[in-house]
Specification:
about 75% helix, about 140 residues, mainly alpha, elongated
């Protein structure tokens, strides 16, 4: 995740496509683009394997949109990030399956899912807000 952006930005600099002042910005942009591409591949791969492509596409669009505007948990390595994203995708598909199995009687499951997700946000997300105690 660090070697490829280094190689690409080095090439762009040597070819005078970018200036020295742009190297770090380009390196960061390439790294983030690669991470997003890998996350997309993880989600799409899980969707294909579990025959739930439509469900995972809807989840991915909502997840990326929410993450873009709200931030979220930042793992201390790309490996952990990718693993946690895969677990999140699998948990989403499990919840979708559980909701479908319950039909119209899914209120308790919805409340439980919201409670778990809310607890995860309170514990893991680096969201600064006046109602959150950061002590």
């Amino acid at each position: 995740m660090e070697k490829i952006p280094e190689i690409v930005t080095g090439f762009l600099y040597r070819e005078s496509i970018i200036g020295k002042e742009d190297i770090e910005i380009c390196r960061y942009g390439i790294q983030i683009s690669m991470a997003n591409l890998i996350n997309f591949c993880i989600a799409f791969g899980i969707g294909i394997m579990l025959h739930a492509v439509a469900e995972i596409v809807i989840f991915y669009v909502a997840f990326v949109s929410l993450r873009f505007f709200c931030g979220g948990y930042h793992a201390d390595s790309y490996g952990k990030c990718f693993f946690l994203f895969a677990v999140t995708c699998l948990a989403h598909l499990a919840l979708v399956e559980a909701f479908a199995a319950l039909g119209g009687n899914s209120g308790v499951l919805l409340a439980a899912a919201l409670a778990v997700l809310g607890a995860c946000v309170l514990v893991k997300a680096p969201i600064e807000h006046s109602n959150r105690d950061f002590a």
